[in-house]
Specification:
Layout: E1 3-7, H1 14-27, E2 32-36, H2 40-45, E3 53-57, E4 60-63, H3 69-77
């Protein structure tokens, strides 16, 4: 049921996106799981294509695109 984000550190935009998502989730009391994928083995174990960012919500794959607040709100309204 939580918002779960798998992420890598290769993209320089990821830390900013993580900060935005964390702040939004804290302010709105949304459970958030951030899981760093730091090896090829971990990436291969994920249930989706992984290109440094993968978002799941309520057990469903949502996107591999980085999130901003507007995009996050759209996902959470589903």
């Amino acid at each position: 049921e939580d918002l779960t984000i798998y992420y890598g550190r290769q993209c320089p935009y990821i830390p900013n996106s993580i900060r935005q998502v964390q702040a939004f989730c804290e302010a709105n009391k949304i459970p958030l799981n951030l899981i760093e994928v730091d090896s090829l083995e971990k990436a291969k174990e994920l249930p989706c294509i992984f290109n440094n960012w993968a978002v799941f919500y309520k057990g469903n794959f949502e996107t591999v695109n980085l999130l901003d607040v507007a995009y996050l709100e759209r996902i959470l309204k589903k």
